[in-house]
Amino acid sequence: MRRVLTAVAMLLPLAFAGGSARAAGEAPPNGAANGAANDAVSRGAYIFNAAGCLGCHTDEKGGGQPLAGGRALATPFGTFYTPNITADPVNGIGRWSDADFIRAVREGVRPDGAALFPAFPYASYTRMTDRDLLDLKAYLLSLPAAPAANKPHDLSPPFSWRFLVPVWQWMYLTPGPVADDPAKPPAWNRGRYLVDALGHCAECHSPRTQLGGLDSDRYLAGNPQGPDNDKVPGITGSKAKGKGIGDWSDGDLSLFLEAGLTPDGDVAGGAMGEVVRNTTSKLTADDRAAIVAYLRTVPAKE
Predict the structure, then answer these.
(1) Residue 258: CB partners within 8 Å, gap ≥ 6?
(2) Is the pTM higher than 0.85?
């Protein structure tokens, strides 16, 4: 009964979220804008949810405004504070051109030419298409601006040395979208895009090297030192508890992505609970099915 009540408590915010003001992640109502601009903003709202922007860029515990940044992200390399990505022209992205935005998300480079620290998962986001990137930008700029100043990261040398980041990028970043595999069905290709690009699942579910790059040999095999130093389970085809989802049915996986309920009746909490609330629960049923189809083909890692 306690688990049932916990599940209900988690789902109620999904059912009643909203109010008179449009919240981040909510598409504009019909008639709010016209023509192609409205289409871009509506598409961008979906991309925004699929990419998980709200949770990382909002200091919910500190009472920060949506997307105004300031959320602390503890890592083995120090504490990063996420930046303001509202339309504010001084502290946010209000003055960024389309080219600025694409370069930042795809190449990890700010408009002033400085490299972005890879706590921002551009090594995954780089796979996003131009259209999805520009739609996302259109949506972000449609939301209220917040003047909150960005907090400096709390890092120690050499991890605080921004001039070294291009070396990291040379080692671990392959810029640009990844073409669909013509030998695979459309659902598989869509699932790979959602998992590897928009959802950037490997950023949490894969272990990292000593330099902070993803260990490609242990793709989605779990991470003993995830964000906020939490242990992140594997989501490969392994049937070992905590190492994979090989013994979950397709229905189990779909229900988990939609409502955060595990096959044994538990409820996703912590960071994954946030992902379900802000991201996977807001995907279409077809997109959740595509994620399942792709994950089914990820080899087991023990």
Answers:
(1) 276, 280, 281, 285, 288
(2) yes
Residues 131-159 pLDDT 10s: 999 999 999 999 999 999 999 999 999 98
Say how many C-beta atoms besides its own lie within 10 A of residue 188's C-beta: 17
Find out whether 294 and 30 touch, Cβ atoms under 8 Å. Answer: no
Task: Read off the DSSP letter of residue 159.
Answer: T
3-state secondary structure 214-229: ECHHHCCCCECCCHHH
Write the pLDDT tens digit of every residue in 72-118.
Answer: 988 888 999 999 999 999 999 999 999 999 999 999 999 999 999 99
Biggest CA pair distance of the chain: 55
DSSP class of 193: I
Can the peptide bond before residue 182 be classed as cis, meaning omega within 30 degrees of 0? Answer: no
Burial of residue 212, with CB atoms counted within 10 A of its CB: 0-12 exposed, 13-18 middle, 19 or more buried: middle
Q: At 215, list the tokens.
A: 């260990």
